[in-house]
Amino acid sequence: MAYLSSIEASDCSVVRKLAEQAFGRSVHDVLPLGGLIAHNFMVDNQRVFKVASSRSCVDDWQRLVANAPVLQQHLSVQIPIPTLHILKHGSEQIPAISYERLPGFCMSRAMFAEKDDAFKKNYFSQLSEKIHELHQVSPDVLPARPLTVLQQAVNMLFNNKTARKYVPKIAKCLFPYSSDHPVLLHTDLHAENICFDGKKITGLLDFDSLSIGHPVFEFRPKLYKKEEDLHMILNDYIQRYPSEVSRPVAEDFLRKFDTVFFLFFVMSLIRVNKKNKTRFEDALKVYRAGYARGTIN
To answer: Which of 1, 81, 147, 235 is the most buried (most CB within 10 A)?
Structure first.
């Protein structure tokens, strides 16, 4: 399978031809929407069109196509029901997905960060309910079982198979609760993936990273522009659903997440050999000793 390069994605004529293949009709307007994992476009102000980049995972898209219709039956808010396309791209094939535009609009994280507390409290109150609703859906009802958050981290960050065996060591050391109380997780619920009509949340987007894990993984620091916004949504969720996420677990998670993210990123860059293996294990020992002394936060 091929994928669309950043240069090709900036050429509207290339994207238009791919969209016309997918929809079987003429396409007039193609608006780039950005995206870190795939190249996202709005086509004729009607459909979202996502074309694979080098970071896209077709397996995730296939699971999403199978799971989305079933998942929608269990949720009170709209979610995209995607179609998977395998398109001709030069002499190769390229995967893409598309879905109808949902009602409402999506704010940027920067735009949301500037809203006042009254707006955010109302917004987060609704979002807490939608998150909890998703967490109540049993993974067993889905045709294609999602990966765990740990498996997703491995697939996204680790190109070297040898390095993957170190992940359980980190998980056991830093996230002893990571396999407890597993629920369905969206894992990417920031403002740009939430449709809002000014009064209520109308839809949730980008279920590509649907996974299974502890509910606290829904509240990753990287999703929020301001730290106080993260604490606001997390506090709302804890107050509403204390049996789902306890405050000690939430504090432990927030304290460790940035370090874990950094270690995962560094490990993804390491070209593993015997020398690097020793260096990594030594670094992990130093980290664990420092954390035990409370010198690493």
So the answer is: 147
